[in-house]
Amino acid sequence: MAPKWCQFAVDAALEYDTPKIVHIKSKKVGFINRLIQLAIITYIVGWVIVYKKGYQEFDSVVSTVTTKVKGVAYTNLSAVDPAYITVDDTTPYDRLWDVADYIIPPLMQNSFFVMTNMIITVDQTQGTCPEDPNMYGSNCTTNDDCTKGAPITNGNGVQTGQCIDNPEYGPDVKTCEILAWCPVEKDVKPGPRTDRPVLYEATNFTVLIKNSISFPKFDFKKRNILESSNQSFLRECLYNAHDEELQFCPIFQLGYIVNQTGEDFDTLAFQGGVIGIFINWDCNLDRPAEECRPRYSFSRLDNPNAKIAQGFNFRFAYKYKINETDEYRTLTKAYGMLFEVIVTGEAGKFNVIPLFLNIGSGLALLSLATIMCDIVVLYVLKKREYYKENKYLYVDDLDDDDIIEGDNYREFSNTDVGSSSPPSINQTLYDSTSKVDGTTVASSDS
Predict the structure, then answer these.
(1) Which of 18, 292, 324, 376 is the most exposed place for a label (fewest CB within 10 A)?
(2) Under DSSP, is residue 96 helix (H, G, I), strand (E, B) or coil?
C-alpha cells in the first residue's frame, strides 16, 4: 500500500475546484462591494483613460538645437576709481568685446558659454620665474625646500631646485623657482568691484535658440520658430513668459534668463555658473498641429551654496610670435555662464489598442471588489462562521449508479457525500434559494 503522504499528494493533484455563487443579502457587504467597484471604475476612467490619456499611444521627442548669441560691449577700467581696481595694468581690459571674443568655444552641442569675467596675463614666454606664493608647496626658505624637476601640485611649472625672492608679493617672500610660462598668472579678479564682473553689460546680450523636433512614430516635425512668425517679428521680439505673443519668441535676453532662475546676474557672472534652459514639447496630436508649441523654463544647475570650487571657469591661451622667433602667449582665465539647452517632450495620438488594454485591465481590477468583500464576510463580520459554511462545499467522487436524475435536483445517498455533519436521511442539493436565520443564501453548483 502506498504511503499516506503519497496518497495525499495524488488526491491533491487530482482535485478540481469550481466556483460557487453565494448571494448575501447584506446592505453592509453590498455597500462595500459597490464602493470598491466605484473607486476602481473612477480610477480607470478618470485617471488612466482621461487624465493619463490611456486611449493614446505615445512617442518621445527627437531634437536638435543651435544657438546664436549677439551683443557688443566696451569696457574701460582705466576710468574706474583705482580703489576698486586690483590689477596694476588695466590695458588688456580697456577694449571692445564682440561675439568672437566672449563666446568660447564658438560652437558647442546643445549649449553655449558666455565669458563675463576674466583674468588676463599678457606677454607670457617660456623661461624661469618665481612661483605664485598662493600655490600650495611653493613657499621656501632654502634650496632644500625645492625639488629639482618636480612639478608643484596645481602649480604653474616645474621646479628648478632654487629658492628665490618674489618681490612682487613682498620683500620677505621667497618661493621656488620654476620653469614655466612667465610671468605666472596672478589669480586675482580685476574689478571694477569685488562683486561685479568686467562684462556686466552681458546682461543685455541676446541669444537666438533654434530648436527642431520630431516624433518619428507619427511622422510629425516642427520647430520653435512658429510658422506665423515673420522677419520683422524676429528682429524686434524678446521672450516674455507673461506675454501671450512673446512667450513663443525664440530670442532670449541673458539677464532675463538668469533672473527667471532667482539668481542675481552680477553675482552669478562674477564667479560663473551653469544655467539650464528647458524646452518642453508635450503635444496632443489629436488636436490641430498649431497647438503643439514649446514651453520654456529656466533653472540653475550647479550648486550656488558650494563650500569650495564654486562657480565655473577655465583657461585658454592665444599664442603669437615677436620678431618671428620668440613665442609669446596671452593667457585668459575665463569666468562665465554655461547655458545648457535641454529638450524634453512626449506626443500622444489616439490608438484603439492601448484603449482596449486599459479597459481590459480595469475589468480585471474589478475582481478586487470580490476579494475584499470575501475577506470582510469570511474574517470580519460576526456571522463569518455561518458564511463560511455556505461558501465552501466539499463533494467526493460518486459512481454513476448512485445518482438519480430529476427535473430540478439530483438525489444521492448520504454515504457518498463527504460532509462534516451528514444528514440523517438523503441530502438533496437544490439549485434554488434557501433562507436561514433571516439571511438569504442562493447557491448553484456547476
Answers:
(1) 324
(2) strand
pLDDT digits (tens, 9 = 90+) for 185-225: 998 888 766 678 999 999 999 999 999 999 999 999 999 98
* Burial degree of 97 (CB within 10 A; 0-12, 13-18, 19+): buried
Q: Which residue has the cell 577694449?
A: 95
Q: What is the pLDDT of residues 267-316, one digit of tens each?
A: 999 999 999 999 999 999 999 998 999 999 999 999 988 888 889 999 99
Under 8 Å CB-to-CB from 112, ≥6 apart: which residues?
Answer: 67, 69, 103, 207, 338, 339
pTM of the model: 0.77
Distances in Å between the alpha carbon of 72 and those of 55, 95, 133, 213, 260? 52, 11, 37, 31, 23
Is 268 strand, coil or helix? helix
The shares of helix, strand and coil residues in the chain, as percent rounded to the nearest 5, are 30, 35, 35
Residue 394 has what DSSP assignment? -
Contact 63, 211 (CB under 8 A): yes
Determine whether 116 is exposed, middle or buried from the number of CB atoms within 10 Å of its CB (0-12, 13-18, 19+): buried
Q: Which residues, 6 or more positions from 236, have their beta carbon under 8 angstroms from its beta carbon?
A: none
C-alpha to C-alpha distance for 111 and 342, rounded to whole angstroms: 9
CA atoms of 205 and 67, how far apart (whole Å): 13
